[in-house]
Design goal:
With 72 residues, the chain is α+β, with helices and mostly antiparallel strands. The protein has one domain. 33% of the residues lie in helices and 19% in strands. Strands 1-2 form a two-stranded antiparallel ribbon.
Length: 72
């Protein structure tokens, strides 16, 4: 299992999401927090989790959601 943490600066997030064709679905309210189901936006996105062979997963900026994700 690869436990390497990768980070991206906020100012580069939009470009990253565009490059993986996820910006439009996020702007359209089509992506949701994996933990609480809140719609993901550029304002509340905390984590982008790539999944091999599957769509990306997201975690919002709620401390509870981030902690729950790390515990699972």
């Amino acid at each position: 299992m690869d436990n390497e943490l990768k980070a991206i600066y906020n100012e580069d997030l939009e470009e990253l999401l565009q490059s993986v064709n996820e910006l439009e679905p996020i702007n359209n309210g089509e992506r949701f927090c994996k933990e609480c189901g809140t719609p993901i936006s550029l304002n509340n996105i905390q984590m982008v989790i790539p999944k091999k062979g599957q769509p990306y997963e997201y975690v919002c900026d709620s401390v509870i959601c981030v902690e729950n994700y790390h515990e699972s």
